[in-house]
Amino acid sequence: MRKGILFLLVFISVSCFSQNKQILYNLTSVPQSLMMNPGADFKYRFYFGVPLLSGTSFKVGSTGFSVYDLFANDGVDFNQKLRNVVYSTNRNDHAAINEQIEIFNGGIKLGDWLEDKGYLSFGMYQEFDLFAYMPKDLAILALDGNQNYIGKSFNLGDLSMKSEVVSVLHVGYHKNISEKLIVGARAKIYFSGFNATTTRNSGSIITTTNPNTTVYNQEINSNMSLNTSGISKYTKDNYDGDVATDVRKQLLFGGDMGLGFDAGFTYYPKDNIQITGSILDVGFISHSKDVENFTWKGYYKYVGTNPNFSGTNDPNSVYDDFKEAIPLDTLHNKYTTLRPIKLNASYKYSFGTSSEEDCVCTATEKRYKNAVGAQFFMMSTPRLPITALTGFYQRNFSDKLQLKATYTLDSYSYTNIGLGFSANLGAFNMYFMADNLLEYRDVSKANSLSFQFGFNFIFKDSNEPPYRN
Amino acid sequence: MKKYYLIRIITLTLFLMCSFSCSSDLNFDQANDLKLTPVIEGNLSYFDIPAPSFVADDGSEYNFASDAQNFDVFRDKYFNSYLQRADFHFEITNTIQRAFAASIVLLDVNDNPLYTINFDVPAYAGTANIVTKTEIFQGAKLTMLKNSRKMKFLIAMKPGTALNKNSTGSFKLRSSATVYLSI
What is B36-181's CATH topology? Predict the structure, then answer.
């Protein structure tokens, strides 16, 4: 039990963020921008990523508390710090980790240089996701018990978390359907390595005083469940394999599968105004292999040990009654999980024509040096969606180098400044992005940090329409 | 050459940023100090015997009543090992015109008595007699409590005014437990 609580705690304390990649979004000199919007205005003859290094992103975030709050080496008793964190957060505070690594990716323009048959892009990436809400009431109950909370209803629904590893195989297509509009879509096949979901819990534990009969009215009403797939074999006592290797194997073979899609567009109402939008990961995974569902459902009213003096031997026992009333069952029913849906939208205004002739662009190309704009991000979670609003400034120093600076407002912080660049050395493209730069003064106090980087080879489309960045 | 220069500056900036970024002194080993110490309030037992229940159909009195109840929460090995201290609070309200001697006996798995809690309850004489008692189980006494599997309730009615089927009042016990755990 203690181990379990510790595990939970470490999960929550390590964890932290949503999947907003505000710097990468619509930075169309980077192929990975296609993963944020399949209708991004990214043109190429063909490109491919450096295997395993083409796109790595990592994001951690937590609202309500930081690693420092819990683990500062300041002489304060850890249990006191934990109490402070628990009492200063609310049930909607959450922690999240998201990590993505592209295994391979590539793209090719369809048709010859004169035709516009659209662009194909494909690849595979692996993703780890963890999202946990602060189980506030349960934490209070575990830390302090009910003594000071007579009359309070402890909400069992406060426990809500999910974690999974998936591999995603995808194929996307985008095309200029007119001079001003590009649309794109991407089909995805998900392979689930493992999944653990406990997001549909409800119920309460309540103790109220009773002036007449028993001292207290004590009731537990529980409707809790945990669904897992791909985990049971690792938790068996006789398991002696290597978890990392086996999860990896399971990611492709023998695991569960699902389907999904992304869709997006880029629209230019004017030459220097760009509007984009995308919806990502509309899909599901059906979990049917190696499934275990743990349920703890029932109602129990605890009245204590009450004699009736009837002379009959009453086999009634509190311990057994309780176990019968709210049994812990293990079932093997398949279940379906939905992927967290992400919405992105942006508005960009470009200005300042480049005078720099350092680039090898053609004379007819009209390109802008600067752009400012706003982006909106929303992601579905087990409760209310997470939203973020970003303002950005983008500067093209030349054809070879783009910089993007962002300022983001979200539930994690109001001072999130991010910076990223994409540079081309010949066909070689590299990018690096990080946000919450101010937090680097003391990373332990950061509520969220994220970074993305990758290396690709991009071979430019020789028949590029006027540059619009 | 300007672009390479820029890249160099940016790379350098990022590198510097990373190297100048710092972290406060953290100590993750603190997690080992985690100790949950909930204090839980719960019902212990309750009964309410009306006066006529002490009178048999033929009008004679039952002077003695007893009932043994399973009291087996300590069968749970986790609960057993987490338990640090338990306080039992008793409250007896007697509104019957007779005095009582009541005891609660903790029995072990072989029905041997381990511990007895005695109550001396005076007869009702216009105002309710409320007898309260708190038993604190700690140390050796706690070990005894952990070994108990049954709770036996004994009530003996002392001599006095005869009761009949129309006698009023009741003998009521309410009790709760405060349980101190350390997990």
Answer: Jelly Rolls (2.60.120)
